[in-house]
Amino acid sequence: MEHKAGYVNIIGNPNVGKSTLMNAFVGERLSIITSKAQTTRHRILGIVNGDNFQILFSDTPGIIKPAYELQESMMDFVKSAFEDADVLIYMVEIGEKALKDEAFFNRIVYSDIPVLLLINKIDQSNQEQLEEQVEFWKEKVPNALIFPISAKENFNVSVVFDKIIELLPESPPFYPKDQLTDKPERFFVNEAIREKILLNYEKEIPYAVEVDTEEFQEDENIIRIQSVIMVERDSQKGIVIGHKGEALKKVGIQARETLEEFFGKKIHLQLFVKVNKNWRNNDRQLKRFGYNQK
Asked: pTM for the full model?
């Protein structure tokens, strides 16, 4: 029996549900999910194996017009998704009419690799609106195969999955068959903590924050973790910690619960907050946090 393997890269505007789809495909919660834009900052790989296939799903940041160096780096992850894709998923939501970057859009329209255009969140629409959207996107991206889906409700996801397997090139697996992702454990610790910050703080705070896990010690029954939450200003540090440390404590409890579910072990989590001024525009700091990997 022939073996198939390839990269399936997911791109789209912020908040279209890319991370929800990625997690539905992989069957694990690899990508963090919130209702806020720019939740995904890195390109995250999720590996799905079958007897005769290996799919490397890649969730990328939402496409935005960069305002500072961190966002420039985030868009570099999106550009790289075009370079190694065997199948490209362009994800839109009901009511959406355009990609925020015309150059990216043109690359999709003139792509010589298979493009699957997924219209997400159809559970929030009616039949008339859905038919209008399908016709609109057929005209706009004539080279794409169009699938209406609901990633949240898992509607039509298996149909898309089967189509992806059909489109994959013949190839031996790229990774060991028991591997789930290309990211280390500390990455998922950082992302779990950052997700809780996105959920618990307003305005600029979530976007001024980066997380660095300095210690990860795993024993048979417990993982001991020490992580630092980086902010850009002293005033942000005070907000993250909160009155008598209550805000930081809440983030720690929620992150610990998520990590215990993810790792299947008891977690001892210590959080600290430090000021790292202007890290979003500091090339050396961005490289330290896994950005600017050109």
From this structure: 0.66
